[in-house]
From TrEMBL, chains A, B:
Gene: taw3
Domain tRNA wybutosine-synthesizing protein: 11-194
Function: S-adenosyl-L-methionine-dependent methyltransferase that acts as a component of the wyosine derivatives biosynthesis pathway.
Residues forming coiled coils: none
Matching SUPFAM superfamilies: SSo0622-like (SSF111278)
GO molecular function terms attached to this record: tRNA methyltransferase activity
Entry protein name: tRNA(Phe) 7-((3-amino-3-carboxypropyl)-4-demethylwyosine(37)-N(4))-methyltransferase
Keywords associated with the record: Methyltransferase, S-adenosyl-L-methionine, Transferase, tRNA processing
Superkingdom of the organism of origin: Archaea
Organism, scientific name: Fervidicoccus fontis
Enzyme class: transferase
Family: Belongs to the TYW3 family.
Transmembrane segments: none
PANTHER family: TRNA WYBUTOSINE-SYNTHESIZING PROTEIN 3 (PTHR48418)
E.C. no: 2.1.1.282
Length: 201, 201
């Protein structure tokens, strides 16, 4: 029932693996998740469809959960500096500025529920809470893995700055540590999957 | 396969409904989600196992995603005031203070995948993103619905205050609006489920 059958599964997995190789060639793939993706893709009943190692965004929005009229004004997958933050704050937002640090996120297609359980069990042990199956189709079970290493930090309300700018270096340190904590969880998840190789497969 | 069968399903659903009535009697159930829970529980193939309409917490922690040595110093399911926030900030944290506004969260047991799809589709339309199946057993499919109306806001780093206290009323307004936005999504989800009653059942 609903589990994806042999040939079609292999064809779709090959297609996603081909796309990943292309992404590596053009430098599009986030190298920090590469070893984790390899660990997952070495399992016959799983393949990864997308991934992000985490990122820092500043958006101009009424609220971060309201897409309407929201725009990204800064985005980086690496640590940021106070001058980058101050540069944004020196301009006027249309609505308000929000600093969002997103944790690592991965999407994994699993061939059956036994494999889903293995992946989710590993993910939760590595701190990827709130992970779960987000859709089920004849392609398989699509599992989303999200780490809780994140910040949702209002920088301004309109033009009023809500941050204590005297402590901007402390805020920057915190933002960057949030990224680093996400990277640690990527490595932890890779090690947990590797150490259990063969189990549940 | 794995779908929960008739009698056992009905017995477990009745047990959860009995617990919910008890929770209402002792004032434990969060009244803001009551109509939504009724809408879900009126569907033969779903029952709710737990729920929260959203809340404001202040925790003393190294990082909010590290449970170790973290403790809750303030918790409220209603709007907060600046004096409540200042009272916490007048004390020294062991680590750092974090203000967390959690959005509404619900857990729904579904009897089969068709019902899961219905619930997830309604949930996503009401802004409960990142919702998904978190576990599968002979009891059914456990679906977690989470709204993205949340804040993860570092108040201090050690004893250094990261907020601009001159704008504390703006921060409080934002915290309370985050709660209200969550309540709106609860009402929206109830209306969406009610309007499609019978579909997918």
């Amino acid at each position: 029932m609903l589990a994806s059958s042999g040939n079609a599964w292999l064809e779709r997995k090959s297609e996603f693996m081909r796309r990943m190789v292309e992404d590596i060639e053009v430098g599009y793939l986030d190298w920090r998740v590469k070893r984790l993706l390899d660990a997952i893709n070495s399992r016959p009943k799983s393949y990864t469809t997308s991934s992000c190692s985490g990122r820092v965004c500043i958006i101009d929005a009424i609220k971060p959960w309201e897409r309407k009229e929201s725009s990204v004004v800064f985005k980086k997958h690496d640590p940021i500096s106070s001058s980058e933050l101050l540069r944004v704050l020196s301009t006027k937002p249309k609505h308000s500025y929000w600093l969002i640090v997103g944790g690592p996120i991965l999407h994994v297609m699993c061939q059956d529920l036994e494999e889903v359980k293995f992946i989710l069990d590993c993910a939760r042990r590595a701190g990827f809470k709130h992970s779960g199956i987000t859709s089920v189709s004849d392609k398989g079970f699509l599992v989303e893995l999200i780490s809780s290493t994140q910040l949702i930090l209002p920088l301004t309300r309109g033009e009023r700055v809500l941050l204590n700018l005297k402590e901007i270096e402390e805020v920057i340190a915190l933002v960057n540590e949030t990224l680093f904590d996400g990277w640690k969880r990527i490595d932890m998840l890779e090690k947990i999957i590797q150490s259990q190789e063969g189990e549940g497969a």
